[in-house]
Amino acid sequence: MAYYWLFILPSVLAVSIIILIPLLLGIGTSLTNSDGYEATFVGLGNYIDLLKDRQFLNSLWFTLRFSFVAVILVNAIGLGLALLVTQKLGKFSTLFRTIFFMPNLIGGIILGFIWQFIFVRAFEGIASATGFSFFSAWLSDSTTGFWGMIIVFLWQMSGYIMIIYISFLANIPKELIEAGYMDGASNWRAFWSIKFPMLAPAFTISLFLTLANAFKIYDVNLALTNGAPYGSTEMVAMNIYNTAFYQYQQGYAQSKAIVFLLLIAAISLTQIMITRRKEVDL
Amino acid sequence: MKIRSSILWLSLLTVPTLLAGCGTGGSESSSAPTDSDSGVEGGVVTIDFFNQKPEITAQLEELAAMYEEQSDGNTEVTITTVGSGEGSAALQARFSSGEEPAMMMLGGLPEVERYSDSLLDVTDLEVSDTIIDGMLEGGTIDDVPLGVPLNIEGFGWMYNREIFEEAGIDPEAIKSYDDFAEAVDTLESQKEALGLEAVFGFSGGENYIVNQFSANFTSPEFNDSIIESYEATELDWTYGDQMKKYTDLFNEHNVQPILTVDYSRSVEEMFVNDKVAMVHQGIWIVPTLNDIDPAFAKEKLGLLPVYGENDTEGKIIAGAPFYVGINKNLDEAVVEESKNFLDWMYLSDEGREMIVGDLAFVPAQEGYEPSDIKDPVSSELYQALLDGETGAMTHKQYPDGWFQQVLYPEYQKYLTGEQSWEDFENNTAEAFKEMR
Q1: Global confidence as pTM
Q2: Closest listed residue to residue A249, CA positions, set B348, B177, B110
Q3: Residues of chain B with C-beta less than 8 angstroms from the C-beta of A252
Q4: Which of A188, B134, B150, B151 has the highest Cβ tally under 10 A?
């Protein structure tokens, strides 16, 4: 028993120092009007102000919409890619897997700047060359700002999620699928009735990962739009950062962070509970 | 299905691990190693200088080396640089973590005030006596000057002389807003012949450009006084109509979509390559212009004032964007040596040479000849400043975060026609009151 505690001590220490203690300090700070330098206790004042903060509510709404669309699309595309590269492609299979995964290796900041160039300059070039107004003025209104963020996120995350689906697809027993074909199932039917239910644990993980990532995204947001136009693409993480470091209202920013934490935790836990229930045990 | 839960747990666990990685990485790169912190060790006094202007890091380091040399190794000056808008946050992190710098650059009165308990009264410094009249104001809290202006910068409509000449416009003859608008029309009518993409290259995608532009119209409201604008609890947009007039003018003749025009496109691509005739910018772009085209600043660059108060009285906004403050709460030897370093930097021959030489500053001190300053626009600015013909940098005194979170987005909404000018004025004024 003594060994047990000895062995988990490093992890407990790391988690306490990095997560638990800052979290408790953070809760404390959120009850003050701290500017990072001086602080007085204000009770729940910050939390009450939050409900009236239009920009914060806008950010929250934007983040929710973004996460909803992003999670569905990332998983659809990731699963689609996984199904494609697990076909019999020979050597190309590995090549495609590598290519699809690569965007994930590029940091969000660089990715944001690359795509900003594509949206603002390359798209504008296409627009003036072809006359399609669809390509003009990207990122300069809230709609294209929203979809710009989605596109970059898809490009970054789909390959990563693909890898998870691939590993689960490879683990589906061949007999099951063969048995299905013997009973006269089409490819379509085999996918929906055999592979799809067997993938349920993959959905649990992938949905959790994309959901968490979509909610806390900051780097791509900063590099791609920095909240522009007119603050309409400012996601919650950025709103919190700006409150803390531009307005120096660190207590207030901290209260936003706590609310954000509770929200993400609630949504993620609900998601895990629901998707777990769908999992089948063999 | 054991594997599934372990992957889930593993992925959960990677989150803190990644965070931990970022944490240590960040603190290692941003904070100086312990032996370079300010203090006294073995008779050597170490001064840590917190710099918020990355573009002058090399010159500051050279100055530091020169000073170390003439102190016979008794003093060590280290420069820590964090810039690009993150400087204030990094400085605050230094203070709250207890690694206070001995000397620091502070941008504007709100920042000076935040550290006022730690800042030394600079009245006794020799350099303070040489500062141009009124220029200490931007570092003064409760009548006590807490910082020395680093240098002077100014901004307005920067224009391309060559293009103006080709279009047959004499910039010297622009004496009023109407003259200015007429010049814009002339340029617009010859746009194709001049090879222009548009007349203006205003960066509607940069919050600080919008902020600077606003100073043209808030400076007269606050009587061209930094203190008055800092103490103001309300912003009435007394000269808002003038601002609207200018906004409508350049928005009509600007490269579109205006919201995606960023600094680098505006200056480094279009302005320097004669694709736009005017940008709203300041003299800090001169080194960049020199890098791209050494002749541009000397031969083509001009600075037109903005008629912010009324149609006939044009002003360039000028002032010190940064003040250098000294931390009085450190070891006495460090404080003394910091004072000496600051005096030396501005008053010694080597220092002065550096100021107008490699640093290419417009000095905030009297006693330079306008002709000492290399590029013509900076020299003009110095002259205007000595003559007291400039507006004040009121945009540095707005409430914390107001320009990023309110002014800029609200202004963008007007630029794209999302809201009326009246709404712009009301929304920004309301938030100004709230955030002050």
Answers
A1: 0.83
A2: B110
A3: none
A4: B150
